[in-house]
């Protein structure tokens, strides 16, 4: 059940698929009932789920982590949830394989439909060893990808369940899976999922689920995986909830016969609450004036107001104007509460009012007899002790509740203050940092633009990234952010919600392209163009390469040029051997260059408009991106051509082209000393300035800003009047507004907005020192974008202007707490860990429980664990992130030792806790192994089940100079092995140069691929893996069930409909008409237990049991069915009714057969039946008679429970007295153990 309350009070719930047989009528609004916290709620609208009426076949591979780290509770969850999922699958059409992995991968059971077999394998699983996702996915033949791709179904799934700690080549996994259309779904238990597993899931169109901690949560995840695989969609129900001061809504939703119980939270801003204004009241302390009253306005935000009482902590001075309670009003209506103060003397007084209401938390008003606000930190009070990670409640008073306070901490003896963050509302719970020191806290009432204010801005972006810069899109609807790692993302400028993460790392400057839905990444030599919607790379072009260029866009006041030369239509032009061709996306002209001429064409045609001669001093031609203007730049001259009029508009001698301005009014040239600005319209020069000056022209073209060596100067271009001047050292950033004649610049401690052509004073805002990295003004000039290290905020300019001041606040309202203590309990770390002796280059893994311990009474936090050297013979099997060790507990560490040299190998294991590092010395002795494994992989050819194949292989060779003692040899696997070694003598010796040969057999008892490992021990040391074994047992995955239907009396062939039912699920899996002669042939999956019967009006069919759960080697199974005419008294054997051995308890697989009888009796209310019970001759005659009676009575009881009248069913029992088979054979005795029915009219 997924609930979306973002549009509260309207709530929408997504309802999972209920059942293939659900009634869409149940989804009508009048048929749905909703209760929230016991209150009846009426639904607004509903939409039923879309369910695929026919379940689609699946090939599912369960990939189960059985490493040591999964032992205990995780392993219990893994096994229980896997069993539950397998039982829920429609195995009549779904085949399942089970693979387990630790340091190796084992195919426990190849694809099968047999539920019992699969459950038995899950029950036998145990955990051991390390974890290798690489082995799990990539091992040949038995790796997950190779297993899955041999599934019969086109719909192939891998369900990967692990504690998610190992590493894997995620891109390779995704590529291999996608090449065979395999969907990978990843689930982690008790640990956050890794980015690699997320990538694999998303790239293969799967789902991922992180840090699940119960069987129920994994079951929930599987439901979503399964519904997605079936193409099922969710139903939706919307209702209008009721506001409440308590965010949690306990909800019960009833649809038809199904009831869903769940909880959801009202979004924070929509939770009801009692609001008071002001929440800080100050009385004048004039004793002569007598009692004073101050009004407080109070309302219920979204909820009705019902004030039951008001209490004061200082009732001798502070009270309320007499009135009656409760004080009530409708939601969002103001009411008045008058507080009173009775001066007694001139001593300052204060009190806290508690306002109690029905159904909502208490609210408070602080009152004092002083008028001036003063921040007072009230907690910590000094001397307390907090442990690392514990919440430190920082509280304050003395100011308006809504004012943000920036908080900092300082270590005793250190002058530096470190940021804690910002908060409002008189309280912040701060998580104590990793220190063993005395510290104190300072609070600062926030100014205009502070980190605290940015965090609480209406649009605030904080996703954990370290931001480098951000800007608005040209429409102003989006924000584009660049992180310090080169990640580019887009966000909604209205809400701050994330939009798109670009697929490439950005290496240079970036910008939106005006007029296009594109984003560019600009480096020193190229420009990359991306789509804005999905972040895909569209094109990469070299910058300024060639001599025939197009003005593409402006980034950071610099014009960028490229050659767009993919215009195939010019190939038909007369003498079309051009050096290069370029065109602008915005105008209708193309320029083609030859050695000494430029040819002008209309875009899309091969007809030449006119030509321009170029001389030896020609440098480049530049096509304007929005106007039909071509600039031709030579060494000491520039010409501008009007392409429409085919004329030379401007000829400038002694000046070369620099760029067109972003404002389309100007062209900028350069001579030896200066930049020169000319009007494109008339060619008049309007402004010149020194080339070393940084500059920017306003979008309107009226003014220019220049940064010189000592000042920022803004000048009117046409009049040369200096509009503003400021020393350069005080200016960090500057920007013209996009439309109006305003200018913004940032100083160290202030942000200034100038209105250049009005006489009004500048707007000035206090800025927290070194806070802002980048500023940008929105295209409609309604807001300004502030980029800091960890947050991007969009501030409304109208709101900001209300707080501007001419004088910067030089003094801030601050307060400091006394010193208190933060403790970081230290872990106990073992001084040394020693691995047993190990052969060179052969890894061994072990879990050490005594490396890190906590013997104290507080939790110990471990930030990271790593091996000091990257190229060490020691390594972590898994790399855990931060975790806590509870008091008096230990933490396991899994390590791998792969000796690189003989003798002692050493390394340091580093455990980081806070700012301290603890060292555990790792030791292990490497030995010359003196042997080689000779058969790493032993592959048997595929052979029939129950046959055998063997091979003699060299296993190990003594390459040393001393005798080698083989003290153990075995087959190791997670399941019963079909591989064997002819001799497993406990000990054998190999002389130098000798080779151990072994005879390995493969005798498959089950169908499908199988693997195992040969392990051996040398000199009684740890078991070593010597060889991988792989084989495949051949048996039928499908068989033909064929036969005839005939009249039960005359034995003549009859046409009918054949029905094959899977007894495990009770579902009909095949339905087919016989031919005219009553013959049929149906292909069916093996591994299932079937009931087969015929269906013909007026007849009741015998049934046959075809159990294919055992290995099948036959191609065809023959079955004959009899159709008994209703009214005949012939006995019909119920071949698919089964009982517990020697008992009368009906097994579940019998339900399909008995339900067939029930349905028949419901349709023929005129019929009665006799139920006959029979047994074989095992046991005494009397006991068999009793058993036959009890079994016949059990069948009668089942039918009666399904609403068939008792008087329509009679029972007869015969014990062993009426055999139909030979009791001396098992087949005969099985035939004699039967229940029959006889129809009686």
Automatic annotation (TrEMBL):
Principal subcellular localisation of the protein: membrane
Location(s) in or outside the cell: Cell outer membrane
Ranges for domain VWFA: 59-225
Keyword Transmembrane part of the UniProt annotation: no
Superkingdom, natural source: Bacteria
Keyword list, A-Z: Cell outer membrane, Membrane
Stored PROSITE patterns: OMPA_2 (PS51123), VWFA (PS50234)
Keyword check for Cytoplasm: no
OmpA-like domain sequence ranges: 1126-1241
GO cellular component: cell outer membrane
Pfam families registered for this protein in UniProt: OmpA, VWA
Protein name per its UniProtKB record: OmpA-like domain-containing protein
């Amino acid at each position: 059940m997924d609930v979306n309350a973002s549009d509260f009070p309207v709530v929408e719930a997504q309802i999972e698929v209920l059942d293939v047989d659900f009634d869409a009528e149940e989804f009508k609004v009048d048929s749905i009932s909703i209760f929230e916290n016991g209150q009846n709620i009426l639904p607004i609208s509903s939409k039923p789920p879309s369910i695929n009426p026919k379940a689609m076949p699946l090939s599912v591979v369960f990939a189960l982590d059985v490493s040591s780290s999964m032992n205990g509770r995780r392993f219990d969850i893994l096994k229980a949830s896997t069993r539950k999922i397998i039982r829920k699958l429609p195995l009549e059409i779904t085949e399942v394989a089970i693979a387990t992995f630790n340091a190796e991968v084992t195919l426990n059971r190849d694809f099968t439909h047999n539920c019992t077999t699969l459950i038995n394998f899950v029950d036998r699983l145990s955990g051991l060893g390390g974890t290798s996702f690489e082995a799990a996915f990539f091992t040949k033949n038995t790796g997950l990808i190779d297993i899955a791709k041999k599934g019969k179904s086109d719909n192939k799934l891998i369900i990967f369940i692990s504690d998610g700690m190992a590493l894997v080549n995620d891109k390779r996994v995704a590529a291999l899976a996608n090449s065979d259309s395999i969907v990978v779904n990843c689930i982690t238990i008790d640990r956050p999922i890794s980015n690699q597993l997320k990538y694999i899931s998303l790239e293969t169109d799967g789902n991922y689920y992180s840090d699940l901690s119960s069987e129920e949560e994994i079951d929930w995840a599987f439901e979503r995986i399964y519904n997605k695989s079936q193409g099922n969609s969710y139903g939706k129900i919307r209702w209008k909830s009721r506001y409440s001061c308590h965010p949690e809504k306990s909800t019960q939703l009833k649809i038809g016969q199904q009831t869903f119980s769940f909880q959801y939270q009202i979004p924070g801003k929509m939770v009801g609450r009692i609001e008071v204004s002001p929440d800080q009241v100050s009385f004048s302390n004039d004793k002569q004036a007598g009692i004073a009253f101050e009004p407080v306005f109070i309302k219920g935000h979204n909820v009705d107001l019902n004030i039951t009482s008001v209490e004061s902590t200082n009732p001798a001075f502070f009270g309320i104007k007499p009135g009656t309670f409760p004080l009530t009003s409708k939601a969002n209506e103001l009411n008045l509460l008058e507080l009173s103060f009775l001066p007694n003397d001139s001593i300052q007084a204060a009190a806290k009012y508690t306002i109690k209401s029905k159904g909502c938390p208490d609210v408070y008003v602080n009152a004092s007899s002083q008028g001036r606000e003063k921040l007072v930190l009230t907690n910590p009070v000094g001397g307390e002790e907090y442990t690392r990670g514990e919440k430190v409640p920082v509280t304050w008073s003395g100011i308006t509740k809504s004012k943000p306070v920036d908080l900092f901490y300082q270590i005793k003896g250190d002058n530096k203050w470190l940021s804690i963050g910002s908060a409002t509302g008189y309280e912040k719970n701060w998580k104590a940092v990793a220190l063993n020191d005395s510290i104190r806290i300072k609070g600062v009432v926030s100014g205009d633009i502070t980190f605290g204010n940015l965090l609480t801005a209406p649009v605030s972006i904080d996703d954990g990234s370290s931001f480098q810069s951000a800007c608005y899109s040209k429409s102003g609807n989006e924000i584009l952010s660049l992180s310090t790692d080169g990640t580019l993302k887009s966000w909604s400028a209205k809400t701050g919600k994330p939009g798109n993460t670009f697929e490439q790392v950005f290496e240079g400057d970036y910008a939106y392209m005006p007029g296009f839905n594109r984003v560019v990444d600009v480096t020193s030599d190229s420009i990359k163009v991306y789509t804005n919607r999905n972040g895909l790379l569209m094109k990469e072009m070299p910058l300024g390469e060639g001599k025939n260029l197009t003005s593409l866009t402006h980034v950071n006041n610099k014009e960028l040029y490229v050659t767009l030369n993919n215009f195939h239509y010019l190939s038909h032009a007369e003498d079309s051997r051009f050096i290069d061709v370029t065109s602008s996306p915005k105008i209708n002209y193309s320029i083609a260059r030859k050695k000494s001429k430029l040819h002008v064409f209309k875009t899309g045609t091969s007809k030449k408009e006119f030509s321009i001669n170029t001389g030896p001093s020609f440098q480049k031609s530049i096509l304007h991106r929005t106007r039909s203007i071509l600039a031709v730049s030579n060494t000491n001259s520039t010409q501008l051509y009007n392409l429409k009029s085919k004329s030379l508009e401007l000829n400038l001698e002694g000046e070369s082209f620099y760029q067109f301005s972003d404002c389309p009014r100007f062209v900028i040239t350069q001579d030896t000393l200066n930049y020169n600005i000319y009007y494109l319209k008339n060619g008049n020069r309007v402004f010149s300035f020194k080339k070393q000056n940084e500059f920017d022209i306003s979008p309107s073209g009226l003014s220019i800003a220049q940064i010189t060596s000592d000042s920022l100067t803004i000048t009117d271009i046409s009049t040369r009047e200096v509009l503003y001047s400021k020393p350069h050292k005080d200016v960090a950033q500057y920007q013209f507004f996009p439309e109006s004649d305003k200018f913004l610049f940032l100083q160290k401690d202030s942000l200034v907005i100038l209105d250049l052509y009005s006489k009004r004073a500048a707007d000035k805002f206090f800025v927290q020192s070194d806070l802002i990295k980048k500023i940008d003004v929105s295209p409609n000039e309604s807001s300004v974008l502030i980029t800091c290290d960890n947050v991007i905020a969009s501030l409304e300019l109208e709101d900001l202007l209300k707080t501007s001041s001419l004088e910067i606040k030089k003094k801030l309202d601050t307060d400091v707490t006394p010193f208190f203590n933060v403790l970081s309990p230290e872990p106990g770390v073992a001084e040394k860990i020693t691995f047993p002796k190990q052969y060179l280059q052969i890894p061994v893994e072990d879990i050490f429980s005594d490396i890190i311990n906590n013997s104290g009474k507080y939790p110990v936090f471990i930030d990271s664990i790593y091996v000091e050297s990257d190229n060490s013979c020691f390594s972590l099997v898994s790399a855990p992130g931060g975790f806590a060790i509870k008091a008096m507990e230990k933490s396991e560490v899994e390590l791998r030792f792969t000796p690189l040299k003989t003798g002692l190998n050493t390394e340091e294991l580093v455990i980081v806790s806070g700012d301290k590092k603890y060292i555990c010395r790792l030791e292990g002795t490497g030995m010359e192994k003196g042997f080689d494994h000779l058969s790493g992989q032993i592959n048997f050819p595929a052979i029939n089940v129950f046959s055998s194949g063997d091979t003699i292989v060299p296993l190990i060779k003594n390459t040393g100079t001393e005798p080698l003692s083989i003290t153990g040899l075995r087959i190791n696997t997670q399941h019963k092995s079909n591989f064997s070694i002819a001799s497993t003598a406990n000990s054998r010796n190999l002389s130098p140069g000798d080779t151990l040969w072994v005879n390995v057999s493969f005798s498959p008892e089950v169908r499908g691929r199988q693997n195992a490992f040969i392990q051996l021990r040398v000199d009684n040391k740890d078991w070593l893996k010597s060889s991988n074994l792989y084989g495949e047992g051949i048996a039928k995955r499908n068989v033909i069930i064929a036969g005839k239907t005939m009249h039960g009396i005359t034995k003549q062939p009859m046409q009918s409909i054949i029905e094959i039912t899977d007894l495990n699920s009770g579902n009909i899996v095949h339905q087919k008409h016989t031919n005219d002669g009553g013959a049929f042939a149906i292909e069916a999956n093996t591994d299932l237990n079937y009931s087969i019967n015929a269906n013909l009006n007026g007849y009741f069919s015998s049934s046959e049991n075809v159990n294919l759960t055992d290995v099948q080697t036959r191609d065809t199974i023959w079955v004959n069915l009899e159709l008994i005419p209703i009214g005949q008294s012939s006995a019909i054997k119920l071949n698919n009714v089964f009982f517990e051995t020697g008992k009368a308890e009906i097994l579940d697989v019998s339900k399909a057969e008995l339900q067939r009888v029930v349905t028949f009796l419901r349709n023929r209310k005129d019929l009665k039946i006799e139920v006959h019970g029979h047994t074989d001759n095992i046991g005494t005659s009397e006991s068999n008679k009793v058993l036959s009676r009890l079994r016949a009575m059990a069948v009668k009881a089942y039918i009666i429970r399904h609403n068939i009248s008792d008087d329509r069913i009679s029972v007869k029992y015969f014990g062993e007295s009426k055999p139909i088979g030979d009791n001396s054979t098992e087949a005969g005795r099985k035939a004699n153990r039967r229940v029959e029915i006889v129809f009686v009219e």
